[in-house]
Specification:
Layout (H helix, E strand, L loop, with lengths): L12 H11 L11 H8 L2 E2 L3 H9 L8 H10 L4 E5 L5 E5 L3 H26 L5 H18 L1 E2 L1 H7 L6 E4 L7 E4 H11 L3 E6 L8 E5 L8 H16 L4 H8 L3 H10 L3 E5 L2 E5 L15 E4 L21 H4 L9 E4 L2 E8 L5 E5 L7 H18 L11 H7 L1
């Protein structure tokens, strides 16, 4: 790995992998007792594909047999975890006590753009104006408060105006008909007024109900950015400015202001200057033993940094990522990606090594054990990633 040397104490690849193993709950002794503990360690779990949330937590729980019931409890009964829009306008699962921080630090700016775009599109289509939309919105929120949770179709039973349609991009190659409910609920999601509720089917289902968002205080955006960066850098540091800008979706000026606010310390990485939170400059104790992991598509560890050469060899990426940059299921050995995995139609978990450097019999035995561990709790459920990658499609065929 090459790159210009930055300032501060040098943190090499081996140390970064040791930090990842412990802080992301991947080494055996570091596994979490429950979904809340695992989620707090990761800050955010990608939620675009519902199965990712469960698979990512199951890989990190000491007792994976509890993955489905305990995650369902946390999401839909105790509401200690919440699925909502977050960084880069992506759906994530967050610890509930971070929802106000995420909303103020990343959601407000996106929400303003989303509402303005919806009103502009409706006006171009000759649809009703902003006052009409506000009236429908307030009515829909009242219905949701009364019902508790509801699908868009169920909401429209009580508020028929949600079924209104308008033509988007008339005359363009991408012209389409949009329903008010689809666009409005999306806007309400990024505004922090509604969140994703219980799915209609199993834990892998993409069909879901809506629920009112947990009440939270309105925070100062700059202060919220500092708090979010403190959480993420504690879990994922060291990281470069490029990593931080990519993960948050913020402007570089926002990143630098937040780094200064939390007193982040510079360190030297192979990529240049990185940052850790104050007091985190010392090297951690390494994992107690070698470790293997089978992580799902869009796992927060695999997607945690923009600059990934320290754990993912560039030559492996064409097989493990789709054309939009979404990572597929990955096989890890001692802090680096060495291959990919998939589930076949009969439920078998299959995997293949793409990088065999320093991967011997012990590694293969550990990976085999992880595949069996995964199969044991997934059971009869069939999981197909929402974003298919070349190796995953090949292995699952």
């Amino acid at each position: 790995m090459t790159g210009s040397v930055g300032e501060g104490r040098y943190i090499g690849v081996a140390e970064r992998r040791a930090r990842l193993a412990l802080r992301h709950r991947l080494a055996g002794p570091a596994r979490a007792a429950d979904p809340e503990e695992a989620a707090a360690s990761l800050v955010a779990l990608h939620g675009s594909d519902p199965a990712t949330v469960y698979l990512a937590l199951g890989a990190r729980l000491a007792d994976p047999a509890r993955t489905v019931p305990d995650t369902g409890r946390a999401l839909y009964e105790d509401r200690t975890l919440v699925r909502m829009h977050g960084m880069r306008h992506t759906v994530f699962v967050f610890p509930t006590d971070l929802t106000a921080v995420v909303h103020a630090s990343t959601g407000l700016a996106v929400a303003a753009r989303e509402r303005a775009t919806l009103l502009k599109n409706m006006a171009k289509a000759g649809a009703p104006d902003a006052a009409w939309l506000k009236e429908v919105e307030e009515s829909a929120l009242a219905v949701l408060a009364r019902r508790g949770q509801a699908t868009a179709a169920e909401l429209a039973e009580d508020e028929p105006r949600l079924r209104e349609q308008f033509v988007y991009a008339a005359g363009k190659s991408y012209e389409g008909v949009h329903t008010v409910s689809t666009r409005l609920l999306r806007v309400l999601g990024v505004e922090g007024k509604v969140v994703r509720g219980r799915p209609l089917g199993s834990w892998t289902s993409s069909q879901f109900r809506w629920a009112l968002a947990p009440e939270h205080p309105e925070l100062d955006p700059a202060g919220a950015q500092a708090r979010l960066l403190q959480h993420w850098l504690t879990a994922c540091g060291p990281a470069t400015e490029a990593d931080l800008k990519w993960w948050t979706g913020w402007r570089v000026t926002d990143v630098r202001r937040a780094l200064k606010a939390i007193g982040a310390r510079p360190v030297s990485l192979d990529e240049g200057t990185g940052y850790v939170v104050a007091g985190d400059e010392a090297a951690p104790a390494g994992p107690a033993e070698p470790w293997a992991a089978l992580l799902p598509a869009l796992d927060p560890t695999a997607m945690g940094w923009q600059q990934r050469d320290w754990y993912l060899a560039p030559e492996l990426r064409p097989r493990l990522f789709d054309y939009s940059g979404n990572v597929g299921p990955t096989v890890w050995w001692n802090g680096r990606v060495v291959g990919g995995w998939a589930q076949r139609a009969d439920g078998e978990i299959v995997w293949r090594l793409l990088d065999t450097d320093e991967v011997g019999r012990d590694a293969e035995a550990a990976i085999t054990a992880e595949a069996e561990r995964l199969r044991s709790w997934v059971g009869t459920t069939r999981v197909t990633p929402r974003f298919r990658t070349p190796l995953e499609k090949e292995l699952s065929a």
